[in-house]
Amino acid sequence: MNNNPNQPKEFDFFIKLQDWKAKEFNPPVGITDPVGTAYIVNIEQLKLLLQDPHASKVEALICQLWAYEHNYNVQFYTFVNTLSDAYERLTNLKALFIGDGEECPYMNSWLELGEITPILKAFPYLEVLQVRGGWGLQVRPLQHESLKTLVVETGLMFIEPDTINQICSLNLPGLEYLELWLGGCHRYGDDVGTEHLLPILAGKVFPSLKYLGLRSSDYSDNIAFCLAELPTVIEHLAILDLSMGTLTDEGAEALLNFPPVNQLHTLNVSLNQLSVNMIQKFSQLNCHVIAEPQDDEEERYCALYE
């Protein structure tokens, strides 16, 4: 389902937070549309929403954190604890966002995240989980049968290798959509990014995966080289999204010469560092290619740094 007219048609395949209409929760009005609305709340609004007699019918919540608040470094855990303690009042929750309330394509968040495992344990029927922040996301190994969409937008400098390892340790048999904003790997070495992504790139985890977004990465070329050597994951994907990164003609050439790419429904390589000639070559593929616009900046910075 897709109720967002601005959402590309290729996303019709998947359940996303955008499937619900976002609306700020107004305590005096209360819950008026628990099925079609993703209620936007701060922590005080969330506590009031939980007292509403229709709280058990709410399907989607957008829990916003703000860097300018004095307790910005503990907001994440306050939300996680409040939500997990209220699992008996949110029995119909399907989609949850916790993160920076500032939404920007070139986000640079300084908000600290934390342990998300209590949410997955408290809500076994959750289908969409999206987090946005600077760093510090953690999750312990567990099995979650219902989760279909996982989005992790990190916006300080990088998504830590430990976080990638922990995500790969999750047993998510129903996961169809995985979007990771990767940032940089320079603090850990040039190849560490792809090294920790190998279980995903090789198709060893998440057997139902159809969308793989490895976005805003400063090692996009290395990802492309690995994908071109590991046909397993490509052969099962519908959409590969490498947008907002640092993909050059060298990495793009590896994908272009890799026949399984033609089995994709959509390949997104927009907002990278591709030449006009390379974009023309991509138009010859048998899949739908999103290659415009490209980043015209001379320096190769991924989107998270801007």
TrEMBL record:
Which InterPro entries does the UniProt record give? LRR_dom_sf (IPR032675)
Under what name is this protein listed?
HEAT repeat domain-containing protein
Q: Which organism is it from?
A: Hassallia byssoidea VB512170
